[in-house]
Amino acid sequence: MRERVLHILRYEPYDWMPVVHFGFWDELYDKWEAEGRIPCAAERKELGNGSGERMVAEKLGFDIGWGEGSYPSNGLDPEFPRKILRTFPDGSRHIRQADGVTVMDHPGVLSIPSEIDHLLKDRASWEEHYLPRLRWFPERIKEEDLAVFQRKDRAELQGLHAGSIIGWVRNWVGVEGLAYMLADDPDLVREIVDTAAGLILRVVGEILARGAKPDYLHFWEDICFNKGPLVNPAFFRDVCAPWYQKITGLASSHGVGFTSVDCDGCIDLLVPIWLESGVNVMFPIEVGTWAASVRPWREKYGREIRGVGGMDKRVFAIDRAAIDAEIERLKPLIDLGGYIPCPDHRIPLEAEWDLVRYYCDRMRATFSR
What we know:
This protein is α/β, with parallel strands linked by helices. The chain has helices spanning 2-9, 26-34, 41-47, 51-60, 123-130, 143-147, 167-173, 175-184, 186-209, 233-253, 271-276, 287-290, 294-301, 320-335, 353-366, and strands at 20-21, 64-65, 69-70, 83-87, 93-96, 101-105, 114-118, 159-161, 216-220, 224-225, 228-229, 259-262, 281-283, 306-311, 339-343. Helix content is 43%, strand content 15%. It is globular. The mean pLDDT is 94.
């Protein structure tokens, strides 16, 4: 399966298209467990190391999960202790998360919780709380970070997670906080980016130097919304792009030919900057809200750009005809080459087991060669 994916990304012949997923909402596991489709949570947990998710995916008919591989400690370490700051009569709570962000947690609500406060506000809070957690120390590299790459004959596709150049910063200070900080103290934003990215470069370099052979690097950013970037593209090009170049250049020198970025939203204004910086696989290509597609990028940038994602997961809650129509829509995109369909993000609560299974079966039957 690993070689099939790499052949597709290289525009080489392949025998059949792997059926790819990016995980499932936790609430969907609960639903399928109640229906008797999958083992209980305790049994899945006993499998360890993500094997519970892989077991569910295999039962459905998926071949691989995008983003699987090594997730080394290249961010805040130690993380902030999770702390309940306040509880309300209706059961809602203010919770300080591991990244120092305080959110409003509503019982039974499945959407992303509202952000209430951010520990990182200015230089003083940066130097006191965050800078010490972004220092290099050898214990950041663990044996399990290397073990996934040690089998030279491995069949599984394995990525190396390269953290986040500015997406984590956006998390730490919030969208409004980042906007104000970029206006009031851009030098501080640059320092935070340089510190975080410098640590990522060190961690990635250490792992590669110890013989790890990942199939691709994988960044997480989420710095766009439905109209475009949350960060000025000029700032992104000036401050962030050089770090992408350093990290992807280092990976390339170790034979890693692909780097993917997970960024929600309308990413069009950042795509050329990523491509210039060695990031050549776009994910998740959100089709559901604004009909994103790999086609206009391919027409504009040529075969240097690849894509994973862009499959409209909403059809998993409709019927077989909707799935058939979605697969027909994907056919001309697959014919472009360098593109692998994948549900654009985790499969949600509304998905029906039989429809997801039908999708996997139809994909395999349709795109075998």
